[in-house]
Design a protein that fits this description.
By secondary structure, the protein is mostly beta strands. It has a single domain (14-352), classed as AttH-like fold. The protein contains 1 helix and 25 strands.
Length: 364
């Protein structure tokens, strides 16, 4: 889900927000166009997480790669033709979880477009930040990001059709018009390629989850952060849930999710249809932030009850310059029950806003 409103970047005021398109009901998705960049929206990201195993040994790994585009000043877009103008900032986060090695690696990139340093194409699926890249080739998504001998080079092929989150073309996250995003996913992608860890290479196979989301005024100032879950169960069911946490305490009623059955049929989930119970806590030695660690998720009407366990306790991206914050995002293992049958699975969890609210109070 990873949506951002970043204190380091100048936030658009009310007049500027009218310049950007808003995520409103009735939007018609068109493909392949909507895989590409939507420069008329203020914030956009392409997000991949996966659970992989080394070929031959089954050594497990997790990964995340996310590319972000954030539009900044809009006042001189048409009159300033300089290749060095700063109308967008592009940044990216990449992580690798070496589960057996008990080590978490994370990196970030921050660039403006400049003379091709970073960008996102509106005519094709091509996003890059220096030599980190995402592109499409036929039905495949090709992602590559390597930093000082650690990273990924993977090929992803959809195993199910696209899933659209929310209703009427938008994933609603607040009461005001525009407090929403256009949000769709490939919830299960067959994944193959190479993992690099400190100069060593591992041929891997597994599955990945892809999110693409774009918006202009998605979140409101009442929120402290969110908990986001993406689960791939071995009965071929997938589940996405997000809890929007309020600064005043409790969970916002606009929290929601999507359940995808084995045959690819998706169903929107409202806040009252699922329960998230944190089971314990973990405190970061670097940031001092206390995160929930381990969860029980229950969907009573669907007879689903599963337990999530982090594959590594420390999967914190600490002190990122790109968002002036730390967050936890990591690989998890799943065990539980669906409709009376025992299931296992793998997935990812993202925890944002536990150190400080990501949405800072703005001056009048």
């Amino acid at each position: 889900m990873m949506s951002l409103r970043i204190s380091d970047f100048r936030v658009a005021n009310a007049q500027e927000s009218e310049v950007f398109s808003q995520a409103l009901p009735g939007y018609t998705y068109r493909f392949p166009r909507d895989f590409n960049s939507h420069d008329d929206f203020r914030i956009e990201w392409w997000y991949y997480t996966g659970n992989l195993e080394e070929v031959g040994t089954s050594r497990p790994f997790g990964y995340q790669l996310t590319f972000f585009r954030v539009a900044l000043d809009t006042t001189d877009r048409k009159i300033n033709s300089s290749k060095w103008k700063v109308d967008h900032i592009y940044f990216a986060h990449m992580t690798l979880t070496d589960i057996d090695g008990k080590k978490f690696h994370y990196f970030e990139r921050i660039n403006r477009k400049g003379v091709g340093n970073a960008g996102a194409d509106s005519e094709r699926l091509m996003v890059w930040n220096e030599d980190w890249s995402l592109k499409s080739e036929d039905e495949k998504h090709l992602i590559e990001a390597v930093e000082v001998g650690t990273g990924i080079k993977l090929q992803l092929v959809p195993m199910k059709n696209l899933v659209f989150h929310g209703q009427n073309g938008i994933s609603k996250k607040g009461r005001d018009p525009g407090n929403a995003s256009h949000y769709f996913s490939y919830t299960r992608m067959k994944t193959s390629g190479t993992i690099f860890i400190e100069g060593k290479t591992y041929k891997v196979l597994g599955t990945s989850w892809m999110d693409h989301e774009y918006s202009s005024n998605q979140l409101n100032n009442e929120l402290a952060g969110w908990d986001w879950f993406s689960l791939k169960l071995d009965d071929q069911t997938e589940l996405m849930l997000y809890q929007l946490r309020l600064k005043a305490g409790g969970v916002d009623s606009f929290s929601s999710g999507t359940l995808v059955t084995a045959d690819g049929v998706s169903r929107h989930l409202k806040r009252n249809e699922f329960i998230v119970r944190p089971l314990t806590e973990w405190k970061s030695k670097r940031s001092g932030i206390i995160y929930p660690s381990g969860w029980e998720l229950e969907l009573p009407s669907f007879r689903i009850k599963v337990k999530l366990s982090p594959d590594l306790l420390d999967q914190e991206l600490y002190g990122l310059r790109s968002i002036s914050a730390s967050y936890w995002e990591g690989s998890v293992s799943i065990e539980g029950n669906v409709g009376g049958d025992l299931v296992k699975g793998k997935g990812y969890v993202e925890l944002v806003g536990y150190g400080k609210p990501l949405l800072q109070d703005l001056p009048d």
